[in-house]
Amino acid sequence: MLLGVMSNQTARAQGAAPPIGSWVNQGKTNGLVVEQNGTCGFLVNGKAKWSGTCRWTASARGGILDLQYPMPLQPGHIRWSVVYINQTTITVDGETFYKQAQ
Predict the structure, then answer these.
(1) Which residues contact 91 (CB under 8 A, 6 or more apart)?
(2) How would residue 93 be classed by pLDDT, with cut points 50, 70 and 90?
(3) Which of 25, 73, 81, 92 has its CA 20 to 30 A from that of 33?
(4) pTM: predicted TM-score of the whole model, two decimal places
């Protein structure tokens, strides 16, 4: 019985949800937008630096966000490590971002 409980907890831990929403860093110079439909973008100083579609690979406390954007010969990829601090705070490659009200 104990093994079954541990397995359920492990399964939940491995299924961290993608960071859906708008996120900004402390100085509001960088932003990350992830939409429910998979569209996402990274903004620098309020302007889109990269935009495209995102894939989410979950881990215990977050996951890897893979942004794929169009390039002439093949799609480009940028991968960020995302760690949840709480429901309104994440780190993106170690930089703290805060969820913005919708």
Answers:
(1) 62, 81, 82, 83, 85, 97
(2) very high
(3) 73
(4) 0.81
